[in-house]
Amino acid sequence: MVAAATAADGDDKVVLTVGNVGKLDSPNVTVGYTVEAYELWNLHYATLTDKAADDFATIPGLAESWESSDDGLTWTYTLREGMKWSDGEPLTAEDVAYTVNRARDEEWLNHSSTVENLTAEAVDDTTLVLTSKVPDPKLPAMDVYIVPKHVYEDISADEITKYPALDGVGSGPFTLVENKAGQFWRMVANDNYWQGRPAIDEIVFRVFSNADAMVAALEKGELDAAMAVPGSSFERLSSTDGIVTVEGQQGGFDEIALNAGAGFGKPHPSLLDVRVRQAIAHATRSG
């Protein structure tokens, strides 16, 4: 990432404009999967617990504390009092229980691996009980995105994956208010954020199809920051006055995937034959 130093009038709206070469596939938390979608959700939705920046240890989020049963299968979380969604509606344990149970039943793409063995119960507004069918080494971490029950309960299971998710109701520091596919998405500060309203009033993520064009926009002052800057430009920008460069390694992995469409109900017909799968396994086995 690189950031340009800019000055702003204290009486004006503070807008942060960020350049990005990746596209937001969908703001819908049940179907999106790109890095850009996760960046949006991290700003739009708070989670029950968070991760410490230095060692990824589980730290408080919407929940301020938790405790486990002796067998480790039941976890009781105590949520913060008086929290609200961005539209002013109360944010309670009922929203968390609703998210966990519905995501489990409908197998939401970004929630299933965490909630498939869980049952959630809201004892009261600030008390949530999670019960797991099996010992779960991930618990007490619960970093799935919590959705507002009062919005999502009006969306049927048949329509959920088609939902544009432009309701603007969130619990994070910023909420999505506009999305122009392939052009930009815009988020505004959440006055009801439980950690306090951000100092920045608005963030605009501009989408560029060409990284060089993004760098040029940064140098001309059209952007305040840019992500995924090419190495050749990054080195030059690191010595440019008014620009601060931040270098880091993005986590990732390589894989060979077979029959990936099966998860969406569209398996390759040949791969339904166990003999074909065995042949592929033998052909790709190392050693």
> In terms of per-residue confidence, which ranges show pLDDT below 50 for 5 or more consecutive residues?
5-9
Q: Helix share of residues?
A: 10-25%
Q: H/E series, N to C?
A: EEHEEEEHHEEHEEEHEHEH
Task: Based on Cα principal axes, name the global outline.
Answer: globular
Average per-residue pLDDT, rounded, comes to 91
Tally of contiguous helical segments: 7
Strand content: 15-25%
End-to-end Cα distance, whole Å, is: 41 Å
State the CATH class of the largest domain: Alpha Beta
| Spatial ordering of strands, largest sheet | 9-10-11-2-12-1-13
Structural class: alpha+beta
What number of domains? 3
> Which quaternary structure do these chains form?
single chain
Second rung of CATH, namely the architecture of the largest domain:
Alpha-Beta Complex
Question: Brief overview, please?
Answer:
This protein is of the alpha+beta class. 21% of the residues lie in helices and 22% in strands.
Looking at this protein, list some descriptive labels.
single chain, globular, alpha+beta, D-Maltodextrin-Binding Protein, domain 2, 7-stranded mixed beta sheet, Dipeptide-binding Protein, domain 1, 4-stranded antiparallel beta sheet, 287 residues, 3 domains
Protein described:
The structure is a single chain. The chain has helices at residues 35-44, 93-106, 112-115, 149-152, 211-219, 231-237, 274-284, and strands at 2-4, 15-20, 49-51, 58-60, 63-68, 74-79, 118-124, 127-132, 174-180, 184-189, 202-207, 225-226, 243-245. Strands 9-10-11-2-12-1-13 form a seven-stranded mixed beta sheet, with helices on both faces. Strands 5-6-8-7 form a four-stranded antiparallel beta sheet. Strands 3-4 form a two-stranded antiparallel ribbon. 21% of the residues lie in helices and 22% in strands. Residues 5-9 have low confidence and may be disordered. It is α+β, with helices and mostly antiparallel strands.
